[in-house]
Amino acid sequence: MAAQAQQETALEDSRRDREIGVEQEHLDRVYRRLEEKIHEAEFLMNDAAKRGQVGTPGALAERDAQVFRAGVHLNRLNNEFEDFLFGRIDLLLGKDGKKGPDGAYTAVEPAEGAVREDNTADIAETLHIGRIGVLDQDYAPLVIDWRAPAAAPFYRSTPVDPGRVVRRRVIRSKGRRVLGVEDDLMRPELKAFLDGHELAVIGDGALMAALGQARSHTMRDIVASIQAEQDLVIRAPAASVTYVEGGPGTGKTAVALHRAAYLLYQDRRRYAGGILIVSPTPLLVAYTEGVLPSLGEEGQVAIRAIGSLVDGAEATLYDSPSTARAKGSYRMLKVLRKAARGALELGPGGRTPQGRPASGGAAPNRTGQLAFGDDPADHDTGTPAPAPAGPPTRLRVVAFGRRLELEAAELERIRRTALGGTAPVNLLRPRARKLLLDALWAQSGAATRHSDPELAAELRSSFDEDVSTEDSFIAFLDAWWPELTPRAVLAAMADERRLGRWARRVLNPGEVRKVARSLRRDGYSVHDIAMLDELQAILGTPARPRKKRDLDPLDQLTGLEELMPVREESQRERAERLAAERVEYAHVIVDEAQDVTPMQWRMLGRRGRHATWTVVGDPAQSSWSDVDEAAEARDEALGTRPRRRFQLTVNYRNPAEIAQLAAKVLALAMPGSTSPSAVRSTGVEPRFVTTNNGNSTVVRDSLAQTVREEAARLLDRVDGTVGVVVAMQRREEAAKWLAGLGDRVVALGSLEAKGLEYDATVVVSPAEIADESPAGLRVLYVALTRATQQLTVVSGERDEPDDSGVPDLLRD
Ligand SMILES: Nc1ncnc2c1ncn2[C@@H]1O[C@H](COP(=O)(O)OP(=O)(O)OP(=O)(O)O)[C@@H](O)[C@H]1O
Asked: Where is the signal peptide (predicted)?
């Protein structure tokens, strides 16, 4: 028996080696062709450089265009040289004989007679799929770009609906070497022949091989194993709104990133306006950042955390759930509108009573840590408040030899009239100035001096000119109607009494206290960033003279400055500059959309007023408490554009053992909803550990020690990363528990775990996580669904474990 098994293995190995050899031959051909193309690109660059020396405007423009094109080409080839060929499909003869622009036949369905009556068939076409397309000298496809229509069957074909595909192969290669192949047979009932030989089938399929791999701290692309339901989303037409829901691990983030790459491939010109991908946390941005470059896309896509969308301000703080609820809800809009108008009373310099400069930056707090909650003892600056300067209460000018004066009451009346307009507050300043001049003019009595309207008008205009150029008038206007910045207004809201006035009948006194207190911390939270953005819209920016860029004197002479990039700027810098200057996008992708608050939806809406959208999320993972209000805000941001809805149903992350446990929390958090089905099982059940010594008391040291031991245990059992998920308030403490265990293990607050995944996780005290906010059960559901292989749950003080250590929240 053993000898027979050995023989079979040897046979299998030799078949595998033969197939690897076949793919190696193809890869060699592709590399030879790529080298030719690189030479072409280099020749173009040199040639262009020579042309540049001629120096005529026409030659300069041509040189620049060529250098640009050749540079892009070289860049792509060099980037994608690594592991860029990853797939192959062997197809039956198609229905018609038509070929697409990439040289492949376009038919999806097989021709009649492609399968013979005895269930045999010949392979009519073989296509290799890679990160970019490569044609040979005769324009036959050596590699098809994964985003091209001809590559779609690689992803769409299933045994239920195979189309023309007989065999789908995933090729694993490193540099110039093919390392392995994994095949899926789409028509297992068929005996298919390629060049007279029966088609070989190697391995158990690529998906399982991909899913079993150890995780690192960065996400990998899934280009070689995109599944049919995911492919439908990635290639959905970009018109209007693509709306994708799916449980944890169904690939929503992966799909969103691949969709960005696909859209750029499909219509680069249209998306020259940029694609914005919004992530909930900087951790998730860092985790996903490498995926697009691996797909050959970078420049036109900006991946930003929702707390980094406002230039010059970065969210570094967390708000407690109740403060977040007040700041993120629609009610805050009313408060901000009042504040923006009321803040004029700040007077010059924009100093708040707390002494914090109103234009204060987003420095991290004193300890340099991210802070959770808004306990004044921790975060108050503690600086005694100097008296505010306040706005001036009297205007005095001299005009036409007379002393004119407006008193406080009159000034107040004028301010109210000016604010009666609906324009942004900063743009109302000219109107206020005009009303002041009207009042002074009326007081001067000069209007009655001339009955001739023309003379009267002339007199008025010289009066206006005299007064408005007077130093005292200019200084008064600057102090009385200062140009407000969003930061100044937000800082002004840190004063509780003042905020109380602006928020009357909108926020309750407790909310006012908490919001004001949180705004006294150094730095901003994600919710503050949305408030800053809203304030920017409410205040407006007065037009300023445009600063001219430094120009190359030669470009100025030839008038080419608009056509050519500034000389010293590299292509990458240019792309970055354009991205930084961009305020609106052609397509906006919102990841973890279930967590976006109403105020944040307004901020996103302003960035995609004319955009098409892809919105991905999972209501069951929402940490936002008022789901209906958020849905209303989302609908407002997306407008009336038609929506195309997709549902992802398969969990690729968690093994069935972990998914089943998480489903129990889902049933509590959102009764009636269904969990995605896990695609694999590891046979390793979640482990339950309790620090509860039997009388419901937990020694704190014991919790620290237990978590540390469990993390160390998991580090021994998995090759990749271990995440320890704790309630937000324990984050700093938990990091200390893990000191010295190395960089494969990290401690995370429950909200920070959003979207991330680890080989193994330790979830610390389910009850503590669930009790932390009104959406706590959904946050716990997120925490429990982060592991790709193993999960340990450690009960804490608040949990009630049974005899097996299973805490109450995780029992049936
Ligand atoms: N077709 C696929 N082939 C291989 N791996 C996949 C595939 N689809 C998803 N995965 C993997 O499954 C994991 C989960 O994917 P992803 O993070 O995109 O899911 P998600 O739906 O955004 O999850 P969550 O809602 O929990 O944030 C990732 O490791 C991803 O690479």
From this structure: none
Q: Which residue has the tokens 């001067």?
A: 444
User: Residue 13: what pLDDT?
Assistant: 81
pLDDT, one tens digit per residue, over 579-607 is: 556 678 999 999 999 999 999 999 999 99
Q: Which atom of ligand 1 is nearest to the CA of 227?
A: 1
Encoded tokens for 494? 């840190």
Contact assessment for residue 249 and residue 227, using Cβ atoms and an 8 Å cutoff = no
Contact 636, 605 (CB under 8 A): yes
The three-state DSSP-derived secondary structure of 287-354 is: HHCCHHHHCCCCCCEEEEEHHHCCCCCCEEECCCHHHHHHHHCCHHHHHHHHHHHHHHHHCHHHECCC
CB atoms within 10 A of CB 742: 10
Nearest CA to ligand 1 atom 29: 653
Could you give phi then psi for residue 763, rounded to 5 degrees?
-100, 120
CA-CA distance, 365 to 381, in Å (whole number)?
Answer: 9
Read off the amino acid at residue 569: E
| Rg of the Cα atoms in the chain | 33
Q: CA-based angle 404:407:412, to the nearest 5?
A: 125
Q: How far is CA 164 from the centre of its chain?
A: 37
Q: Does the annotation list 253 as a binding residue?
A: yes
| SS (HEC) of 545-574 | CCCCCCCCHHHHHHCCCCCCCCCCCCHHHH
Residue type, 771: D
pLDDT of res. 47: 67
The reply to whether 367 sits in an annotated binding site is no
Total-model pTM = 0.80
Q: How far is CA 84 from the centre of its chain?
A: 25
With CA atoms as reference, report the closest residue to 499 among 340, 374, 356. 340
Distance 492 CA to ligand 1 centre (A): 44
State in Å: Cα 678 to ligand 1 middle. Answer: 12
Instruction: Region of 569 please: left (phi>0), alpha (psi -120 to 50) or beta.
Output: beta
Q: How far from the centroid of its chain's Cα atoms is residue 307's Cα? A: 10
Q: How many Cα neighbours within 13 Å face the side chain of 549?
A: 13
Among residues 725, 618, 730, 593, the alpha carbon closest in space to that of 669 is found at: 618
